[in-house]
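Comment thread on ticket #2218

A.B. wrote:
> Attaching the input chain for the structure job we discussed in standup.
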Amino acid sequence: MSQTIRHPEILEIARRDGKVTVEWLAEHFGVTLQTIRRDLSDLAEAGRLERVHGGAVLPSGTVNIAYEERRRLAAASKQAIARACAAQIPEDCSIFLNIGTSTEAVAAELIHHRNLLVVTNNMNVANILSNKADCDVIVTGGRMRHSDGGLVGDLTSAAIREFKFDIGVIGCSALDADGDILDFDVQEVGVSRTILNRSRRSLLVADHTKFNRSAPARIGSLADLDMFLTDAPLPGDLARRCADWGTEVELAPPPDPDATG
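C.D. wrote:
> Ran it. Output below, let me know if you need it in another format.
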């Protein structure tokens, strides 16, 4: 199999899983480890991947991954995390769901909850819940980002400050090794901070791919949250730090695709 055939599939696997390893790819394609290392180096030189020890990850930087790619990335993990998050949300409560494909997955898992007040700056969340008669949906004002239907800016933050939510659910673009929660859009960061400030209980939903990425703007720290829902063990000593901070961590691994029955 030529590299022109392997490269697109390697990228698709990286988008799906967030990371590729040399050993797994070599076995998958039936080629040598050296061949895969060359493939990954070529893709890194082209800016399509970033090399890490033992493999490669999607590139990080000052620009986020395109929205449709984010929707596909770690989709099974996002669904599992969303299901675990929905289990933390009681009926008859007020919640905020912010911008992101992870929070959109949470919205989809809330379809069977009753009597919710959902405030959001995410047009996709509003559309997901638009046909739910017993769910009162309020959309904040603000400047709409055409890339993902997100509403950001001072108008958005001003609208959020008019509420006090039972639960605020946010996503992020990256999670630093010291527990800092990161994003790309400074205006979105301001909105996320306002959400946390106006929520009695705050939850972060973020899958394992965020551990391997970086972004320039800081939302806050895991220390500021009540719960972090993810799908893989936290890197380094971050789990111990969360315990010290009083931030509960819940792991929601996706279903085993090879499981039967």
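A.B. wrote:
> Thanks. Noting for the ticket: The radius of gyration is 19 Å.
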